[in-house]
Amino acid sequence: MESRVQTHRFRHHTGYKIATYFDVESGAEFLGPREFLEYLSESEGSGQATLNAVINDLQLFLRYLCACSDLQVQSGLKLNGSGLFLNRVLFMYPSFLAEGHRSPSPFVSAVAHHLGFEGLARSSTGRYLSTVNRFLKFNDKEWISQQAVNERFEVDTFVSEEQLIEQLGKMRSLKKSEKAALLRKSMLAGCISGGPKQITRPHLSMPRRFGRPQDPDYRFYEKCFPIDKILDLIKNASSYRDICLFSLMAGTGIRTSEALQLRFEDLLIEEELVQILPYADRIQVYDDLTDCQITELAFKGRTTKDVLFLSPFKEIFFEYLLNYISEERDRFNPSHDFVFVTMANNAQGKTWFDKDSTSHNRTFKEAQRRIGIEAKELYSLHSLRHFYGTWLRNYQPNGEGGFGFPLSVVKKHMGHKFESTTEGYSLPDTRVTMSKIQRAQALIKKKGWDLTRIKKIADQ
User: Fold this and answer.
1) pTM of the predicted model, to two decimals?
2) How far apart (Å, rounded) are the C-alpha atoms in residues 31 and 35?
3) What is the set of domains in the chain, with CATH numbers?
4) Which of 55, 171, 295, 374 could crosslink 15 through cysteines, CB 3.0-4.6 Å?
């Protein structure tokens, strides 16, 4: 089904790219999403990557609302039961995101079929819900006045479904498509205005059947680049630039944005050290960028400027760095001091950090294909950060005859502010834990210890 929602991206006065959305049928702008994106770009300090994600999330939400209205009016598909139509549509959105046409709700399943939507990956649904909840919360505040909504929309959404559909049914002079358009506008008006004060705004969350994780370490298995393939990946990189980038990220765990924004003054080549410095501490060094490029810089913040560069990745990086500079980067004679540059034919030598994630991940995924990773299992560059956290937490020799470091140590070297954040990157590997348990079990069996003996030893 072709989408009724058209997205138009434009450059905001803050320098960020945001978007507005139009109804393809009427050509009218959807009121609300643009104002929300303007608010994010002006007051929250959101980076371009965050704004891009929100733009994508809102587009899917609008498509969902439009499909609900289309089915309600054109097909006569109704929601059973009583209650506010919009609130019930909103409450079903989590099921739509996670289950698509497999949803146990006939209405949600029909909407998903209407859109050709099969559902999102488990790891993505939380972000989409968070965006919509923030959008609803924003519109409950004073940013968009009730008066503006009343001027733009004719139908009150906050009535029962039966009253609303009955009202539209009496308007015999309107075509079904026109009635659907009216309902679409009314539904979005309800999202924006918050409705009468006595209406409680729903907070969207996943159904309880999604409460139990399929695997306690599912984030590790989904996001960490395979440890046994990491060196093969680097060997199969297609350029010196990519060898340097992959080894840098795997060996330091820095973010993709931090790696691509690395400048030559951040490299202490003789000492073989790398530093990650914040924008606020050296604003003047970015004079080689345009205003638009400056808005593309992303600094999530680190608690320390120093990074722990693990072997053998450190040796690989500094060994190939000079090859990259002399044989690839210098050929383009770039006018900036960023280490990593684009090598695409139409943008050779230009800054790479301000290009989209597809550009950043293209050669990374090509290298994965060369080592036999299937298309459906390809990883993004961010998986190298997960690799670093997992390795440091579980496998790095700790100098005390063992392997792995405490969470507090991993937190520091990943530049996190809170240990809870680090946990998502460096969960204890189940294989490591099981191996320890199996060795302990073998020792117990060999010694012939009973439970009482084990407890006495543990108590000591």
Assistant:
1) 0.60
2) 8
3) 5-210 (no CATH), 219-394 (1.10.443.10), 430-460 (no CATH)
4) 295
